[in-house]
Structures are given as structure tokens and as C-alpha cells.
Amino acid sequence: MNTGELIRVKDLQVFFHTDEGIVRAVDNVSFSVNRRETLGVLGESGCGKSVTARSLLNLIPRPRGRVHSGSIMLSKDDGTKVDILSLDPFGKEMGQIRGAEIAMIFQEPMTSLNPVYTVGQQIMEAVLLHQEVGKKVAREKAIEIMEKVGIASPQQAIDKYPHEFSGGMRQRAMIAIALSCNPRLLIADEPTTALDVTIESQILELLHELKAEMDMSILFITHDLGVIGEIADRVIVMYTGKIVESGSCVDIFYRPKHPYTKKLLESRPRIGQEGELSSIVGSVPSPYHLPPGCRFAPRCDFIMEKCRQEPPIFLVGPEHQAQCWLYEGGERVG
Prior knowledge:
Elements: E1 5-18, E2 21-34, E3 38-42, H1 49-56, E4 65-75, E5 81-83, H2 92-100, E6 102-105, H3 109-112, H4 119-130, H5 135-148, H6 154-157, H7 167-179, E7 185-189, H8 197-214, E8 217-222, H9 225-231, E9 234-239, E10 242-248, H10 249-254, H11 259-266, E11 314-317, E12 320-322, E13 331-332
Parallel strand pairs: 3-8, 3-9, 6-7, 7-8
Antiparallel strand pairs: 1-2, 1-4, 4-5, 9-10, 10-12, 11-12, 11-13
């Protein structure tokens, strides 16, 4: 089984130029997504998760936003590689990659669907764009994918409008649109936001089943530790635009190394827990006034003088990395 890299992000920097100054939304981020794996991206709101995801599709809003540096190498089935960032965002080649190679489920299914088109028309649009088929075949394919994602009575549901769907069914419709052209990488940007826990569990189970059935990889973005624990094979933890820790799901949950990751885990509510929940002191720094050195230092229990300098990334276990001076004796990997 081929389990090599599907996509490799190297030294990615995405900046936004605003009236108040420059926001380093993604700052020197590197990671890979392997074939047939689920990579979880974890972090608080505003840490750069969604901007990283949009970069994979060359969807950074211009002219305010721009990719300052870095590369995103996509490995194709024929063995060739293409740097997504070298392509024209509005060009034909990038258009062929979106949907057919990489697809995305955006946040908020309540607002992501167009209210003036039927759900079926929105699924068919992607099929017609990427596959050389007519409307009749596209409709058949839309019904087929709606059935696959668990939408009841797809022959009737295909002609309904988004407002006629429940929240859970709208999310399934978003998944159907993303999967309509059998992408090799599915980016799920907080796909369970605003869903109740029962529907959330169903969506996670559905994604897990579709991943195996369609032989694809998933980049799953969330701030929910419980969700990450259920679906991810590997995890990267982001803070203020940087990856502060990465490793297997077991490493992150049972052998966390970075103080930020540890604090996130300690703040989880647990069954049978008594007393107040643990919390992280302070708040996320303003993107316009980031502290020098380690950006988590002002909130860290282990702050030391050296934290005024930006720490490199240290190897803290097999395929487990942390950006923290506490592991200075370890091997540097960045």
C-alpha cells in the first residue's frame, strides 16, 4: 500500500496587510499529509488553521493577503509534483486541482450553501465542472453521492433548497459537494461546528467511512480536542500562526511536550471531575503586537530568560516534535 506523502508544505508564510499593520497569519509552517491518513490541525481561534487550509487551494484573498514565501508540493498519481503556489489562482490548472484533487468543506454549513439554488444543483455544478458528462449523468451522480453521505430519499432531496434541510443534512450536503469528484485530499474546516453531539458523532463516523471507501486523505481542522482524538492519525498544534508541536495522536494526548499542548489538555472537562476547570492564564497576544521569542512565553509556567529568543523545533520522540527551549538538549529539526 502506497503511504507516501500526498502533499508537503514547506516554510509557508501568509501575511495580511491591514490599516493597523501586518498580520503574520501563518508564519514559517511546515508539515506533510500522507496518503490515506487523517492529519488533525488543533488550536484556538485565530491561530492560522483556516488560512493554512485555504493556502492549499490557493484561496488567499488578495490584495490584502499574500503568500510571502514557502511551497506547497502536491504529488500527482503519475508521480509528478506541482507547487500549488506557483500556479495562477485563477488559471485552468489550479481550477482542475480544486475539487478534483483537493476539496474543502468550509465552516458553517448554514451559510456556505447558496440559498437560491437547490442542493442538487450545487452538487451537480462541481460534477459538470470537473467531469465530461451531461446534466442527466451529473444528476445521477449527485443522487449517488447524496445517498453515499446518508441523505434520506436522495431522489426527492436533490430538488430541495438548503432551508428545507436540517443542520445535520446541510453538513452532509456540503460533504457531498466536496466528494462529488473523488478528491484525493479532503480539507474539513471545523465541519462539526454548531452541530449537536449526536449529529457530530454521525458526521465523524461518516468521514471515517468515506475516507476508507474513497481511498483519500483528510486534513481535519478543529479547536475541539475530543473530535481530534476520535478521527486523527497525526496531529499538529498551532499557536499564533506557528506549529508548536506535532506527533501521533497518542503522542499528543498521552505524551504532550509543549506547555501549550499540556495546558489545552488540562483544560478539558472530564467525567467525574470535581472543582473548577483548569485554564490557560492570560490571552492570545494581538497579531499586531506579538511578543519576541516564544509567543507562548507570557502565558507559560516554565518561562525562562532564553524564551526571549525564538526556540527551534526539537525532536522529542520518534516523529514527535516540539518548539520549546525545555528540550534544548534534543536533536534540532528546524
